[in-house]
Amino acid sequence: MSQAKISYFSLSSLQGKDAKLDWVAGTKFEEIKFENINPDGKGNWINLTDNDFDSFLPLVDKEVKAGRSEEAVFKIFSRGLETGRDEWVYDISKDELTKKIEFLSKIYNSCVSTGILNFGIKWNSSLEEFMKSKVKSSFNKSFIQKSLYRPYSKLFHYTEKIFNHRLTRNHYEMFSFDLSQKNLTIVVTNHTQVPFSIQITDCVPTLDAGGRPSENLPLYRYDEKGDRSDNITDWGLTQFQTHYNDFTITKENIFHYTYAVLHHPAYRTKYELNLKREFPRLPFYPDFHQWTTCGKTLMDLHLNYETIEPHTLKRTEIATKPNPKAKLKADKTTGQIILDDNTELTGIPTIAWDYKLGNRSALEWILDQYKEKKPKDPTIREKFNTYKFADYKEHVIDLLQRVCTVSIQTMEIIQQMPNNVDHQKP
Predict the structure, then answer these.
(1) Percent of the chain with pLDDT over 70
(2) From CA 68, how far away is CA 218, in angstroms rounded?
(3) Inter-CA distances, 191 with 43, 45, 211, 217, 243, Å
(4) pTM beyond 0.90
(5) How many angstroms separate the CA atoms of 365 and 420, rounded?
């Protein structure tokens, strides 16, 4: 059988819908000047990537079962935790989360006893299976952990397995059998609809911690007894030590190197299309230890955002309304954030907005997460819609100033990285 041919033609993206329809209606098929194209080795037939990306070291091997790689830099990797009921099991307030879970647990256990679903709580396939198996919930405050919900936004999370849709073996390997052990995890968001981004966390990340489904690369892994071991493979260590002829290189060095390279603007630009389609791979850059130092500096900066010295912003009380309406809007042109009817912050340097994770700057992620939003779940909306920005206003101002420092220093580090992507062959 002969191989099919692909002929391709595209109208300008600047043309509107009506103009494109008029063109189609008024153009004969034989008049269209098609381009004959050949797909690449991975079946892509538009926006082809003719570069050396495939020659780099694989961070993970997505072909292996259960997310366990042997000939890749990281052994285990995992998507973030998918709950299926975020509004129920996450909350900014530990007390409010406790109230929600006590209610959820009570209703669910009643359903287990009666065998009848009560639609006052959020159901999905996994919770229904637990109910059919007569597995009851046992509320325990020790299940409440801090979790990375969105960039620079942590929430309290109730981690009892039955109420978390995809709480898997990999998550327990990342944070031990009770999800309470410390680990460092690089959160990678590479998606067709948002710019590539990474962040670091020391707690369990949710599925959309980067705004879209993310994959996570932990530094360590835990066994069923809670014993810790390295997650960077011996194979990966050998690749680095052999290539650089440097047997002082450690697995932690490689972790820091990874974090630096994946922040490199030239790397992200050259391999932008690759990073939308597939998991990132690592080139060997000259001056390995310079990159590890850079990665560790960035990592420490991003992990310690809650305690870093705040950048001083000018606070102006523009009114004195008794119940000011929350706004949380940013004006990048003027370097201004309007918090509510009464208060605004000014003096945000332009460079601070340039530190982005996906489509938003770090500062904008904070503003988005602290807005007053109408809950989607009807029971949450009726019984537990207690969040008010006014209760967290001073905390948000403090957080914005600290993340402003993080943003400025991050961009200063990134701007000092080499402007090219020259690398050494494996």
Answers:
(1) 90
(2) 12
(3) 18, 18, 10, 16, 31
(4) no
(5) 30
